[in-house]
Amino acid sequence: MIQFYEYMQQPPYWIARDDDGYWLVPARDQGWAEREPFVGRVTSLKEIHDFAGVDLGLPVSKK
Hints:
The chain starts with a strand and ends in a 15-residue tail after the last strand. The chain is an all-beta fold. The protein has no helices and five strands. Helix content is about 0%, strand content about 35%.
């Protein structure tokens, strides 16, 4: 499961956390393909659930 958090930076990015670590993800359509490892402090992050219509192009979940 991937969790997303607000990250205040311009242009807008979100931070994603999955089994492989933390990622900096552009907050735009197909942004997942342009993610890069996030290195920084991750304290006081606010989890987000509403992507305001942005289709990040997330991989299909494997069950």
